Every structure is written in structure tokens, then in C-alpha cells.
Amino acid sequence: GNATPAIENISFTIHPGETVALVGPIGSGKSTLAKALPRILEISQGQLFIDGYDVTQVALSDLRRAIAFVPQDSFLFSTKVKNNLRYGVPLAEMPEIEQAAKLAQIQGEILNFPKHYDTLVGERGITLSGGQRQRTALGRALLVDAPILVLDDALSSVDNQTATQILDNLSHGTQRKTVIFITHQMSAAANCDRILVMDQGNIVQTGTHNSLVNRAGLYQQLWNQHKLKEVLQ
To answer: What pLDDT is recorded for position 175?
Structure first.
């Protein structure tokens, strides 16, 4: 019911296998854009295309097989860690589960749990830390093995170094995916192939970290704020 559009006059292309970060202030439209991709939010036809296909004309089940969407707060079930990981692929075997956990940088911690992959996770993942819950949810999405991965602030509770390693895992090797990384973590975003900077529903800057950080504008301001916080911590 708001008279001001959440996103407006946005145009961009993301290439297969590219890792693209979306950064910007709270309320700039990043999450709205992320939710439009798998049609969690419905959009009009003729606006968003994947491999040339209008997403509004693609069967929802087919679209969501192509896009794994990981929100900031994913629901974990009161069952074993391995069952939470293979929720989208119930018949997945342990080697596949372990590979997904490794890519999500959660394997080492799972092996430190009392019963490893058979450790019971409390309702909503209450027995796990915020970062562990997010990486378990990411592992679940990776096991589904969709070609497009949308992370909507899905690593907000993960430290910058681990988040950067996760993105590196996803952008290299045979399992390389097209990743759209919505984030406030500037250090992790800086390592992406390309960065889209959003403000008030518009993309106001686009480029690599090196090109944007040396250019007066919103990205430079966000980066300077990030560096100041690091100094003050």
C-alpha cells in the first residue's frame, strides 16, 4: 500500500557462474529484489528473465528448482543435523551431505558435535549458534544443487573470513554457481566478481570493489564506515 515503489527503474544482467553482491543501506530494496527472483514476491510479466525465459511464464516448481533461496532466518527442524541438511533431497547419501557441509564451512563443527551428523538439532535450531544455523541452511540449499543461489543476508551471523571462504568455494571448481549475495558484510562483498550498489530502490553504482572504492559515491561511504567499525572494534 506504500505509494513509493520498493524497487524502480532497475536494469542489470548477471552472467552464468558470476558471483554478484548487492549492497546498500537498510530499506534500499535489496531483499525485495532477491524475493522477486524466485517469485516469493510476484512481479509483472516482461521484467525479469532467466536464460531468456520470463520468470512469470515459467512453472513455479521449475523456477524454484533452478533457484535456491536462503533467507537470513531459515527454519531448522527438531531432528538430526543430517536430516536438516537433506531436507530438500531426502534420499541424499552421506558423501553428498558431507560435501555440501564442507562447501558451507560447517563440516568441521558438525564433527565436533557429540554425535556428529546424528546430533539432534532443537526446534528452530536452538542448540546451534546463529552462524551454525545459517551455514546449515546454506548446506541444505547447496545439496539441492540449483544452478542459481540467492543469499538474502544469509551469512549475517558468520564472520567475514568464513563468509569470504564460502563465496570462494561457490565461485570456483566444478560446482561453480551463479550467486547473488545480498549483504551488509563489505569485506565479503569486496571479493565478489561484481557489486551492485542500491539506494532508495535504484541501482546507483555497479563495478568491482577496486573500481568502486576509488570512486566518490555511496559504495565508498559504505566501505569507509566498514573500515571505521573495524578500527573501533
So the answer is: 59
The answer to whether 184 touches 197, Cβ cutoff 8 Å, is no
45, 67 contact by CB (below 8 A) = no
Query: Where do the DSSP E strands lie in 43-82?
Result: 49-50, 53-54, 67-70
Q: Which three cell numbers stand for residue 119?
A: 546430533
User: ∠ at Cα 132 (128, 133), nearest 5°?
Assistant: 75
| pTM beyond 0.70 | yes
CA distances to 100, 103, 193 from 143, rounded to whole Å, are 5, 10, 23
For residue 6, give the 3-state DSSP assignment. coil
**How far is residue 187's CA from residue 157's CA, in Å, rounded to a whole number?**
14
Residue 128, class by beta-carbon neighbours within 10 Å (0-12 exposed, 13-18 middle, 19+ buried)? Answer: buried
Alpha helices in 21-79 (DSSP H): 30-36, 60-66
Q: Is the dihedral of CA 200, 21, 68, 26 positive or negative?
A: negative
Residue type, 105: Q
- Cα distance between residue 213 and residue 209, in whole Å: 6
**For the segment 104-133, what is each residue's pLDDT rounded down to a tens digit?**
999 999 999 889 999 988 777 777 888 899
The answer to whether 35 and 41 are in contact (CB under 8 A) is: yes
